[in-house]
Amino acid sequence: MEYHGFISTLIDRSEKLLPLDRPDELDVTRLLLVLNTGFALVRDRIRYWNDANDGRLRGASPWKDVQKACKSRLDKPISLNGQVFFDDFRTSRDWTYLRVSREAASGQLSAYNVVQCLRKAEEIPSDGLKLDAVMWAMRNSFAHGGILPMSPSQAGQRIRPSANQLHDARHIDRVYFVSKWTGDSIQDDLGWIVMEFGLTALRTFWEDWKALILVPGLDALDQLDRVA
Predict the structure, then answer these.
(1) Strand 95-101 relative to strand 122-124: parallel, antiparallel, unpaired?
(2) CA dist 41 to 6, 23, 66, 94, 221, Å?
(3) What is the pLDDT of residue 108?
(4) Which residues contact 184 (CB under 8 A, 6 or more apart)?
(5) Which residue has the higher pLDDT, 25 or 67?
(6) Residue 66: pLDDT above 90?
(7) pLDDT tens digits for range 175-205
(8) Which distant-in-sequence residues (6+ apart) come within 8 Å of 225 by Cβ?
């Protein structure tokens, strides 16, 4: 028997894992699990809607406006149907987007090597980025194992120090998303893209993404079960 509702029920299931009435309880494992499924999987299925070739997908893609919103620049509010999305995220000081040249990206992708290269990285201001660049880097990090949760004792001071200092330096206070930085061709290896997310920014990203994918309605989410 075919299973129905895996995508359309993600929102409800995510709220059981990450209850809104306890926003400070940012369990890193649960948050990353929710993002891996609720963001990375859903984002890919939205992107590949037109390639699914399933006759049960009725009419034109309901995700065109969402895809257009994802290509917006982060230097101004992202509006869709009279609502503003990702405003808390784009104005947050709790995350940063870095480029590490191939010369500075020494060795294979590992926690140690990433920490060593951070001070040689070029920080790209958020107002010079498109939302899609952040999403693409996050998606690729999930797809290729470039997810590195770290604590101050492992990685030292953050590029963007948090206002909320941990009492125990062994507790995770950030997640690095590491993916390849390429040119026009995927073989054109320029180095790494490294995004440093504080836990508050990571939760904010999820809440903003969740609000955006609810715009086309639960029926559109349900149809994503058929896009694979």
Answers:
(1) antiparallel
(2) 11, 24, 15, 24, 12
(3) 80
(4) none
(5) 67
(6) yes
(7) 999 998 888 777 788 889 999 999 889 999 9
(8) 3, 4, 5, 6, 7, 8
Give the CA-trace dihedral at 60, 64, 65, 71, to 10 degrees.
Answer: 180
Give the separation between CA 131 and CA 35, rounded to whole angstroms: 16
Provide the whole-model pTM: 0.87
Distance from C-alpha of 1 to C-alpha of 97, rounded to nearest angstrom = 44
Are 106 and 113 in contact by the 8 Å Cβ rule? The answer is yes
- Evaluated on CA atoms 2, 11, 28, 128, the torsion sign reads positive
How far apart, in Å, are the Cα atoms of 117 and each of 30, 101, 114, 120, 166?
A: 28, 9, 5, 5, 24
pLDDT at 1: 39
H/E/C letters for each residue in the chain? CCCCCCCCCHHHHHHHHCCCCCCCCCCHHHHHHHHHHHHHHHHHHHHCHHHCCCCCCCCCCCCHHHHHHHCCECCCCEEECCEEECHHHHCCCCEEEEEEECCCCCCCCCHHHHHHHHHHCEEECHHHCEHHHHHHHHHHHHHCCCEEEECHHHHCCCCCCCCCCCCCCCCCCEEEEEEEEECCCCCCEEEEEEEEEEHHHHHHHHHHHHHHHCCCCHHHHHHHHHCC
